[in-house]
Every structure is written in structure tokens, then in C-alpha cells.
Amino acid sequence: MQITIYETWKNQTDITKFILLGFGNLMEFQMFLFPALILIYILTMFGNILIVILVVFEPHLHTPMYYFLANLSCLEVCYSSTILPKVLIDLLTGDKSISLLGCFTQLFCFGCLVIVECYLLSVMSYDRYVAICKPLHYATIMNGKVILQCMAISWICATSILIVIVSLMSQLSFCGVREIDHFFCDFAPVLQLSCNDTTHIRLLAVIFGSFDILPPFILTITSYFCIISAILRIPSTTGRQKAFATCSSHLIVVTIFYGTLMIVYLLPNSIAFKKVFSVPYTILTPMVNPLIYSLRNKEVKESLKKTIRILIGFNEKNRWHPVAVFGHNITS
To answer: Which of 40, 168, 317, 325 has its CB surrounded by the most CB atoms within 10 Å?
Structure first.
């Protein structure tokens, strides 16, 4: 009897791997799901890396607004690379297991990126507020030092909080069921598998989340309230349209990001419902953001056209023409 109890306890506490259940019933459509996700991943990488290249190599894009946009694109690349490669490997091999270390690493990276993006979107909102409401002071307020300080603070806050949360989670015991009902290691699904009391970790996460996500959200809302008020005071229709065009793409991105984030983490819905709404901000948003910014931003579109013309011209110039090379010998 003692051996049986010991073996049961050992089986419950010696969990070294989790099983990611993935997309549930959608796994039946694996032959369609895999190519769709790999296409999304390729488009995400291409679109975001292209924006970074444009911002780096185009001198007229060397402004705070486009510096933040390049940083957002880097975040989106990291977002997708944190989640999608593992999902694709699971679909391809059928091996849905993930080690505890791998799970906590994914959770840490994903959590950091979410918090940093909250800060970055709020700073981008404030940047648009200064550009529209205080244009004469823009160069003074949004200088290089301020930009670097904003980015440093966002990363320091994010990593500090996630180090504490993930360290506490790594000390938990996981027993019984080891299946995570999600396609990646998210906070709540992982905590549900613990056989310890996780109330203190959940409470700490709520407190830290309030300090780290609520202020950027309030700053974003306040900035856009001031921006819209300032735009409505512009007498001419053309002036209002021009002013709104400078921030409309960012407003769309902010709405999608915070909208899905609130549905997933604030509303008391089922796990299946939360999993469905996790797809937009973890998989689709990183792919769509470059399209939103490029299609609605005149300067980005012009830079893209210029780059394409340069590439086409370079290819034409370096194309190998047999007639041009051997023409003299043929005619002679």
C-alpha cells in the first residue's frame, strides 16, 4: 500500500513536460491549417522586416514616429517567432509536448512582449498627440534622449515583472493532468494545472498588470481624446482629414490590440472562447499591422515604391543579355 501511494505521488509530481492541445477540433483540418499558418508566418516576417528596412535606409523616415513604427515591427517579429514556430512544428510532427523550461520561456517572452507593446502603443499615441496638438514643441519634446528612455523603461518594467511572476510559477508543483488547453503556454491555462494554491500568484499578476498595463492604456485613451478634440476644432475639412490621416492607422492598431486583449484577459468567458480570441492578437495582428501602416501612410507607401523601383532598376542593369555580350561575334 505504501509503495502504491509513493508511486502515485511520484507520478503526480514528476511532470517534466506539458501537452499543448492546440486548436482543438480544428486539428481535423491540419492539411489546411498548416499551410495557412506558415503563409501567415512568412507574410508577417516579410511585412515587418520590410518596414524596418525602409525606416533604416530611408533618410526622410528618420523621425520619432517611424522609429517607434520600426520598433513595433521588431516586436511583431518576436511575437510571431515566440508562438508560431512551435505551433507549426506540432502540426507537422504531431508531437505536442513542450518541456517545463520551454513552456516558462515562452510564457516569459510572450508576457514581456505584451507589456512592451502596451507601452510602445501608448508612447506612439503621445507622439501623435504632440505632433497634432503641440507641433511647435515637437522637436523639443520628442527628442532622441526621450525616445531611448521610453523604450528602456518599457523593457525594464516588463522584464522585472515577468521575472518575478515566472520565478514564482516555476516553484509550483504540477500534478495529474498535464494538458494545456491552448496553442501556447499562456498564464491562466498553465496555472490551472498546478496542484498548489495559486491565489497569491494570480493576485500578484493582477496587481503588476494594473501598474504595467493600465497606465499605458489610460495615456493612450487620453492622448486620442485630446487628438480628436483638436482635430474637430480645425475649421477646414481638408485640414481635419490631413490631421486624422496621420493617426488613423495607429488608432486602428490600438483598437484591435486592446480590444482582443480585454476580451481574452478581462471578460469571464470559457477557455475555448478565450483561445479563439487569442488568435487575432497573437497570430493575425502581427501580420495585419504592416498592411495597415503601409496602406494608410503616404510616406511609407512612397518609400516602398521607391525601393521597388531601385530593385527593379538594379535587376535590369545587372541582367545578363546574350545578344549584348556575344552580339559583336555573331554579327562579325
So the answer is: 40
pLDDT in tens, 30-57: 678 888 899 999 999 999 998 898 888 8
Residues linked to residue 20 through DSSP beta bridges, in sequence order: 180
| 281 CB-near residues (< 8 Å, 6+ apart) | 256, 257, 260, 261, 264
- Give the whole-angstrom CA distance, residue 13 versus residue 25: 30
Q: Is residue 149 part of a domain?
A: yes
At a CB cut-off of 8 Å and minimum separation 6, what does 306 contact?
58
Dihedrals φ, ψ of 62, to 5°?
-85, 65
Which amino acid is present at 185? Answer: C
10 Å CB burial of residue 137 (0-12, 13-18, 19+) is exposed
- Distance between CA atoms of 93 and 91, rounded to whole angstroms? 6
Whether 128 maps to a domain, the answer reads: yes
Number of domains in the chain: 1
What's the CA gap between 328 and 332, in Å, rounded?
6
Residue by residue, DSSP assigns 138-194 as: HHHHS-HHHHHHHHHHHHHHHHHHHHHHHHHHHTS-B-S--EESSSS--HHHHHTTB
Total length of the chain: 332
Q: Which domain holds residue 269?
A: 14-302
What phi, psi does 194 have (nearest 5°)? -80, 145
| Cβ 222 vs Cβ 235: under 8 Å | no
> pLDDT for 226-279, tens place per residue?
998 988 888 888 878 887 877 888 888 888 888 888 887 777 666 667 777 788
Whole-number Å distance between alpha carbons of 268 and 259: 15
Instruction: Supply the Cα-derived Rg of the chain in whole angstroms.
Output: 25
Strands 17-20 and 97-99: antiparallel
Residue 325 lies in a domain: no
Q: Which residue has the cell 505536442?
A: 96
Residue 81's contacts (CB-CB under 8 Å, 6 or more residues apart) are none
pTM of the model: 0.83
Query: Which CATH number goes with the domain that contains 131?
Result: 1.20.1070.10
